[in-house]
Design goal:
Layout lengths: L7 H11 L4 H8 L3 H9 L7 H11 L3 H5 L5 H5 L9 H9 L16 H16 L3 H21 L1 H21 L3 H15 L3 H17 L3 H15 L8 H21 L2 H18 L12 H14 L3 H11 L3 H5 L2 H17 L3 H14 L1 H5 L2 H13 L6 H7 L5
């Protein structure tokens, strides 16, 4: 059962645990009794007042959509989320249809691998620049053409279909539709078949989707298992194999951090760092951006996640001075800045968090304006913090109010 299908009380309990709050601490912050919290989490007491759900979301530092989903009308759950991003229903329809994979379904000509490769390349470029509204509109046609190409050209088409699914899963994670992201990632794994490298790249997306669903332990198992399956002898491996293996290890580390498993975090990041030293901060491999700088960015994020916020902020100051940092895709830099803003919140530096959010918006506006996670962080900074330069303007632009 996914988090979206859980009763709202169960979702509250899961997020409370993730925030490392006891029932008593959570109750105190809400101004409620511990007994009230316990009854809500067990489903004995209903959450039927919107104002109370809003307050819970604020205390848990998550967007309302995470708690509401199917417990409230779509208009209430999605208000203000992913502004300007239309077309997700078209992506959903493309993912659940299987007839598009038949080359004779409507007599249309089957696109050549070169044509589909051009579309896939364009989609990855849109993703790297965080042009999510444009990308979502592109995806239904891309999934259609990649699927039909695969029927006529199984070998070349399989790689293109895996990539189309990976792109779909990645952007759906960004937009907060974790269930649909998981479906796309699962389709990528199936399309990869027995090709080890394709299966490993698909597992990267699977790990991201499972983490978005709150299934960190399963995400860690899936990504680490895939990394071990592809793990080459370093002296014989291609840079692409090393990059994918290292990316899987980093995904495993992020999942381990979500579980509070600090020893596994250290082990997995150190293993990835050894591979990154061989790859270097150079050309792109399989859309991973993997290299020493990305490893260091993950060290920042996992340090904050396991509670070592001071170390996270020290590392952040150092890594963002690297030349390789500035060469990363805009999406990657902005997503990282949003994650680091959360670390600033943990130490009560709302001005610092606001500054990072404004920087993220400059790098890739949709990363802040379309993602529920980023909007949650921005909302907390705007409501509770000082008027950091640019924060009020950004909050107004996406419809947040104090």
């Amino acid at each position: 059962m996914s988090r979206a299908e859980l009763p709202i009380g169960r979702r509250v309990a899961q997020w409370r645990v993730r925030r490392r709050m006891s029932q008593q601490v959570f109750a105190d912050r809400l101004g409620k009794s511990k007994s009230w919290v316990d009854k809500v989490e067990r489903g004995v007491r209903a959450l039927d007042r919107f104002s109370v759900i809003e307050e819970i979301a604020d205390v848990l530092r998550i967007d309302l959509v995470v708690l509401l989903r199917r417990d409230a009308p779509p208009s209430a759950a999605m208000a203000g989320v992913a502004d300007g991003v239309d077309g997700v229903d078209g992506v959903r329809a493309a993912l659940v249809r299987h007839d598009v994979f038949r080359s004779d379904v409507d007599g249309r000509p089957v696109p050549s691998p070169d044509e589909v490769a051009h579309g896939v390349g364009h989609a990855w470029l849109a993703y790297q620049h965080a042009r999510y509204p444009q990308l979502v509109r592109m995806l239904p046609d891309l999934l259609d053409t990649a699927g039909r190409c695969h029927t006529r050209h199984p070998d070349e088409g399989a790689e293109l279909l895996v990539q189309a699914y990976r792109i779909s899963s990645s952007v759906l994670v960004k937009l907060g539709d974790a269930d649909l992201a998981w479906l796309a990632a699962d389709r990528a794994v199936a399309a990869a078949a027995d090709d080890p490298l394709r299966a490993a790249t698909a597992a990267v997306s699977l790990g991201q989707a499972l983490r978005a669903l709150g299934r960190e332990r399963l995400a860690m198992t899936a990504t680490v298992t895939a990394a071990h399956r592809i793990a080459p002898a370093p002296q014989k491996a291609s840079p692409g194999e090393l990059a994918v293996c290292g990316t899987l290890l980093l995904q495993g580390a992020l999942a381990a951090a979500g579980c509070g498993d600090a020893p596994s975090v250290t082990e997995l990041v150190d293993q990835a760092a050894d591979l990154a030293d061989l790859v270097g901060d150079g050309p792109e491999h399989h859309q991973t951006s993997f290299g020493p700088t990305v490893v260091e960015l993950v060290r920042v994020v996992v340090a904050a996640e396991v509670g070592d916020v001071g170390d996270a902020l020290r590392r952040h100051a150092a890594v963002t001075r690297r030349d390789a940092w500035r060469r990363l895709p805009a999406e990657h830099r902005a997503a990282y800045l949003v994650d680091t803003a959360r670390a600033y919140l943990e130490v009560g530096d709302l001005r610092g968090a606001g500054r990072l959010l404004v920087d993220a918006d400059r790098a890739a506006p949709a990363e802040v304006r379309c993602r529920p996670t980023a909007r949650t962080v921005l909302g907390e900074v705007y409501r509770d913090g000082p008027d950091a330069p640019g924060v009020a303007r950004l909050a107004t632009a996406i419809g947040l109010t104090r």
